[in-house]
């Protein structure tokens, strides 16, 4: 688990409080004179003031079927133009609920069944555990319960890859499954790519075309794009992050892309996280969710039966003794349903999902008992800010006023930053004290192959001139252009990268010797804060 609240926590944990503060929280009582939109507006402004490096936030708030707030705060890029309610943000895994809605529409039409085997629609669907090939269902694909590890297979499309959708599907049989079937929750983008292909097979059109014609058009979501590749940079919030030194998520905030797609091109994996949208459009999505599929004109996007199924829990994420004064948002049970996380929050049902991409963190929260829902989109990776927004706005909608989420999140960020800096120093110290490799550097050069990812090359390169000329190793991933750079000795048979593109997470590679030569190798991320989609640890490399 990352030692800080990064994208991983935004996607796979429930909202929870930390140490309570003696001061009164920001939320106002439900019967206060200030309107709901004014309260949320004031809270967002306060949260941004407490996180001054955050370039922009946008919020949509829906109550009783009406958008009561759609607003942008801040700027598209540091020093740039302001955002507004029509500015595009990448919302990543919030897309998953849309993919499930596409399946629900097809189920209403009798073309798909939740509990039918995936092979009924994709006959070639296979897994690394062959005994599961005929039993995995459509519901399993979208419930994170097949047994893949967290983020397994994400290196097929994260960071930006040149793979096609067909190539991603073809790699699935080789991605390792580490846990038992239907016993535990492990967040898995890869199976949502497969779910998108079920939509395509059953409908006769690509996932993005189905979503456009059957969901976005009926909802009038004219500003939304199913995949980010066509997002106009002049209409988009640009991605921001901290790329060191010394490690990712540390150092000054900076713009990390001149467009969304420069750092986030998931066209091939669109069903798992392709959407870009605006507060104005996403309010329409929230409204139809709260209306259980009913459109404003009384017709239906999907049936109430499908709505009930999509909110029905399929797998337990976590459980606890419930909320306390110190942890007011802790859930008794947090579950994953069908494209949504469903949990209790302060005694009420919350239906939610997060989304994270390089330079963006976002979330959608539905509170059915209040007939209310909201979204928050950000163009940076400040996980503690989004924690404050998620829980703080929920408390406003519920009329709670006993916890200061902004101050508590600032405290946790300060503590997390200190731990991250200390961890980075320890990593550097271990390298300085590390033993040299047992073999000459050229012994490690060659092509290294993983069954599902493919090839990773290590080659010798000469650097410097004259007396400063020396030979060093260079590592590059064959299908991921950004993952390339120098490979340095770290400790014995372990080496580490320093990728030329500092937006990416460096890795350790550890070689296993056989007969005095490197034969196999494993990898893992250098930083304890590394995003889970850098699933280097799932690679099992053999020298070709």
Summary, kept brief:
With 544 residues, this protein is an alpha+beta fold. It is 27% helix and 22% strand. β10 (348-357) and β11 (360-367) form a beta hairpin.
Count every helix, treating DSSP H or I runs of 4 or more residues as helices: 13
| Mean pLDDT over the full residue set | 94
Rg is 23 Å
Biggest beta sheet attributes: 8 strands, antiparallel
- Based on secondary structure, the structural category is alpha+beta
State the end-to-end CA separation.
33 Å
Strand order, biggest sheet? 2-1-12-11-10-9-8-7
Shape: globular
**Beta-strand residue percentage:** 15-25%
As residue ranges, the low-confidence spans are 1-5, 12-33
List the helices and strands and how they pair.
Layout: H1 7-12, H2 36-50, E1 56-63, E2 66-74, E3 89-90, H3 95-108, H4 138-141, H5 165-171, H6 189-203, H7 207-219, E4 240-242, E5 253-255, H8 260-263, H9 270-273, E6 276-277, H10 279-290, H11 304-310, E7 315-319, E8 333-336, E9 341-345, E10 348-357, E11 360-367, E12 372-378, H12 383-398, H13 405-433, E13 446-450, E14 454-463, E15 470-477, E16 484-491, E17 494-497, E18 507-514, E19 517-525, E20 540-543
Antiparallel strand pairs: 1-2, 1-12, 3-6, 4-5, 7-8, 8-9, 9-10, 10-11, 11-12, 13-14, 13-20, 14-15, 15-16, 16-17, 17-18, 18-19, 19-20
Helix pairs in contact: 2-12, 3-6, 3-7, 12-13
Task: Please explain how this structure is put together.
Helix 3 (95-108) runs parallel beside helix 6 (189-203). The relative contact order is 0.17. The chain has helices at 7-12, 36-50, 95-108, 138-141, 165-171, 189-203, 207-219, 260-263, 270-273, 279-290, 304-310, 383-398, 405-433, and strands spanning 56-63, 66-74, 89-90, 240-242, 253-255, 276-277, 315-319, 333-336, 341-345, 348-357, 360-367, 372-378, 446-450, 454-463, 470-477, 484-491, 494-497, 507-514, 517-525, 540-543. The model is unreliable at 1-5 and 12-33 (pLDDT under 50). The chain has an 8-stranded antiparallel β-sheet, with helices on both faces. It has an 8-stranded antiparallel β-barrel with strand order 13-14-15-16-17-18-19-20. It contains 13 helices and 20 strands.
